[in-house]
Write a structure and sequence with these properties.
Elements: E1 5-11, H1 14-29, E2 33-39, H2 45-53, E3 60-61, H3 71-89, E4 93-97, H4 101-112, E5 116-120, H5 135-145, E6 148-151, H6 154-162, E7 170-172, H7 176-184, H8 194-197, E8 205-210, H9 219-234, E9 238-243, H10 248-258, E10 264-267, H11 272-281, E11 284-287, H12 291-298, E12 303-305, H13 313-318, E13 321-323, H14 328-340, H15 342-349, H16 360-371
Parallel strand pairs: 1-2, 1-4, 2-3, 4-5, 5-6, 6-7, 8-9, 8-11, 9-10, 11-12, 12-13
């Protein structure tokens, strides 16, 4: 076994798991690699759904989640857990994803043990350290410690170059979420949730909604819910499916405004396969999520982003996504524009997805082999923009 590259992949939340799953599967295929998976379970139940879907059995599970956990609590538990694990496993490289607290803490543990770090989905920036909070700083700090930077797009690569990262350490790969979607979306999909099976996706304009980010807590969520209520009341052909985050800070506000409203379905977060297929059947998406901004364009679905800034400007530039913030009037106006202006809808739904072509995981693994001298050439870069 001594000659194999030991790759320790670490993730803890559902969004990370979705994006790391195809990469784990690709690592498992390669005879030059010993693939080891550790989950922190920063999110427990939602993480487990993804592991089951992609048939991944973690080698290690830190199982850190507890109720009302703080960012400091998550960080210290992950650092301590990973420190012990790294000392016993002795990986050649640790792979982390994106911008979660697990990502930052795992990177710091690797750095303290002088283990190489590969950062998947590197280089996204809003340039405002509190938006999104704490993700912007998690991602930036991870980037400062990483040795290999797997940027999904050319513009994320440019962000890293401006921060002084050497070009030889940056690999433009596309986003692994597109690899995942090729395995989850089905044309004649039957939902596990019967409420969804009974929605008339043919004759109703179904809007899928998610909104839960910390920077929108309070007034932001209030405004979003008021706008959603008006959209449904004013437009009889619209049905709303809001996947409501379990956090009471969000859930209580959403239920106050939208519970028992006609043509509004409030559902708990769905598993990955259900979510991807709901997106595929919906008319449009309204969200403050980062991941949905990448996923929906792959399915030709316009996205209104309920945030003032995004670390994913490529989709805004390509026209598949529009930033609308949380102002009641702006949200309402843009939603109705998409509902009734066919040209506007068409321009957003037929734009090219700048995020991936389904080969990101392969490029990442090829580049790890290149980095450890098991392959002569870097992988060809993804050209998406």
């Amino acid at each position: 076994m001594g000659n194999l590259i030991k790759v320790l992949t670490v993730f803890g939340t559902r969004p990370e798991a979705i994006k790391m799953a195809p990469l784990v599967k690709e690592l498992e295929k390669r005879e030059e690699i010993e693939s080891i998976v550790c989950v922190t379970a920063q999110h427990r139940e939602m993480l487990d759904q993804v592991l089951k879907l992609f048939n991944i059995e973690p080698d290690y599970d830190l199982d850190i989640m507890k109720e009302k956990q703080s960012l400091i609590g998550i960080t210290t538990k992950v650092i301590e857990g990973l420190d012990n694990l790294i000392k016993s496993v002795k990986p050649d490289i640790i792979l982390v994803h994106g911008d979660t607290t697990t990502t930052f803490a795992a990177s710091y543990a690797a750095f303290c043990n002088q283990v190489k770090i590969g950062h998947v989905e590197a280089g996204l920036r809003t340039f405002n350290k509190y938006f999104p909070f704490p993700e912007e700083m998690n991602r930036k700090l991870t980037g400062a410690m990483a040795d290999m930077h797997f940027s999904p797009t050319e513009s994320s690569k440019m962000n890293l170059l401006r921060e002084g990262i050497e070009e030889k350490d940056i690999f433009v790969t596309g986003n692994t979420v597109i690899d995942a979607m090729d395995k989850t979306v089905e044309d004649n999909y039957k939902f596990e949730n019967d409420i969804l099976n009974n929605i008339d996706f043919e004759d109703k304009k179904v809007i899928m909604v998610t909104a839960h980010r910390r920077e929108n807590w309070g007034e932001g969520i209030e405004n979003i819910c008021k706008a959603l209520k008006s959209i449904v009341k004013r437009n009889k052909d619209v049905e709303l499916v809001y996947l409501v985050h379990l956090n009471p800070v969000v859930k209580d506000v959403v239920e106050k405004h939208l519970l028992n409203e006609e043509r509004v379905q409030l559902l708990p977060p769905l598993d990955t396969k259900e979510t991807h297929n709901l997106m595929n059947k919906s008319y449009m998406i309204m969200t403050d999520s980062g991941g949905l901004q990448e996923e929906a364009p792959h399915l030709g679905k316009p996205v209104l982003v309920l945030r003032d800034v995004t670390e994913r400007p490529e989709a805004v530039n390509s026209g598949t996504v529009k930033l609308v913030g949380t102002d009641y009037n702006v949200v309402l106006e843009n939603a109705e524009e998409l509902l009734y202006n066919e040209e506007f809808y068409k321009s957003m739904s037929t734009a090219v997805n700048p995020y991936g072509d389904g080969l990101a995981s392969k490029r990442i693994v090829d580049n790890i082999l290149y980095y450890f001298n098991k392959r002569k050439y870097k992988s060809e870069e993804f050209k998406g923009e």
